[in-house]
Design a protein that fits this description.
By secondary structure, the chain is α+β, with helices and mostly antiparallel strands. The chain contains two helices and four strands; from the N terminus they run H-E-E-H-E-E.
Amino acid sequence: MTNSDEKSPKVHYICQTYVEQKPGRDGQAGLKIGKQFEYTTASEAQNRAEREAKSEDCAGADAYEISEDPGSGEVGSPCFLVRLGNVPEFDEP
């Protein structure tokens, strides 16, 4: 591996599912992460999210990519490929 390879960002393609959480003391139901899968391509992550979103126990699914700086280990904000069903809101920092 060359020095330039070590400095270039690493891209991760993620499929993340959500399940409904039972209402808490405040009486409000919420979402929690169900499953997480990492893929080598955006299309694989998106296809998995589409399949998972059709599952009966899945409230919603996201497919997104994130970049990681290998030098610092910092991870950037997600860039959503697809958001399906009931998914949490995402606020940019």
